[in-house]
Amino acid sequence: MASRDNVKCHPSWTQTGPSTYSQPYGFQEVLYNAISVTPGSPGLFLIATSATFRYIPSSPDQRVSSHDLVPRLRDAWIQLRQKYPGLAAENRPDGKFYKSPSSPSDLKDWLDTTFIVTRGKTSAEHWKTMVKARQMTLNYFPEEGQLFIQGEHHILDGRGVMNIWDPLASPTTEALMRADGSEVARLPPRSDDLLNMAEKEPGRGEQRAQEILAPLASIQKPIFIPVTQPLPVCSLRNSVLELKASPRITESIISECKAQHLSVTASWHAAVVLATQSVQRQRNLATGAEVGTEFATFGNFDLRRYFPSPDAASPPDAYALGNHHCVLPYVMAPDDKTFAQISKELASYYQQDLPKADPEIWSAMGPMIRAVLPDFVRPQLEETTPAVSSFGVVDNFISSSYTDVDGKGAWRIDDVWFGDTVHGPWLECFLWSWKGRLSLNTCYNSAYYNHAEVDDFNQLVLDKMLEGLGIGVRGQAPKL
């Protein structure tokens, strides 16, 4: 058994007590801290993911009830915390706070707080009224065979949300977590600790940040979705609508993208741009307002590809769960361009090697986040340009079947879902594929859009994608 005194944590963490540790926020987390709310309150950009599953016993004679699965799920959650203790950190105003269990009762208290079995309620109902939890929380809804993980962006980014399911569904025969402090050695570093954030010269990081953001300030005719003015107060309930393309349509899209040397993600983003412009054109008919010509977005970039290899004492997937992404602005002018040209332009943006394209990029990250922060802490958020984020092929991260640790059965994953909460008048658009079907998933706030409007937008995006790729599509005018 390891001695707590002999366990060393990453130097970005400071021991503040016999079993407590703190870590200042990294450049990404500064934004999430600014918009953070107290536990139990609705909040912006709270993350969520769910998996619908069936447990299949290896023998037809065995019967396993939902009650029987609870201990297995609890043990898997404990093992996940042992391997990735950062999941149990609290996000406090001055940084992350972690308490290492000093006794079995400490571990039980954490488990009772963060593993919740809810009967008589669906995960969809839970999502609608989801509020901030103090720590990452695993909810189990037995009637629908669904697990629902919720938390804050401080802890996980999009890649981290995808990565969490595989280790959770793959518990080992190792002993469960011990209250000996050994897990502290695996408290995660920040992106700041893994990249060279140094300025070329004093003040240059701030200057480069302003240069990166400059295109946003020079937009003359933005493409956005006009909404009712004055803006109503946002709803505190969470809304989402997912459109799943059929396997046939999905196969056609992927095949045509390959034939035209286009990225599926970039083609979808191009379709979002064109769909937004179409909706703007239709809504502006009544007012005579001009239609926009420039679509501004913040693209998400996974930073893990730029990190050094973990040291020998770290697990090989040390960076799998964490908040290791950055966002960068981009302005797209679609007029007088073909769909393929728009898609290829966006693909070049997404596929760029960031430090190769801009050697000063890392030094600008912190100043850039601080510069845009005021736009997210206003009492009334006003942005109505859809946000876009692609998860890619989820099958590369989550298997459809996992053998149980004791070999007595298997976990079959039937469906997965990802989203976050929106407290402003924009559509939060996600794309992923799972089991041969593309999912266009849009989180939104019902104070600004109704179900039918978001359904129409999702379908319009799919139609624009099919049309742009030259795939047969039913013709419909936008109804949003």
UniProtKB/TrEMBL annotation:
Entry-linked InterPro entries: CAT-like_dom_sf (IPR023213)
Source organism, top-level taxon: Eukaryota
Gene3D superfamilies hit by this protein: Chloramphenicol acetyltransferase-like domain, Nonribosomal peptide synthetase, condensation domain
Name of the protein: Condensation domain-containing protein
UniProt source species: Bionectria ochroleuca
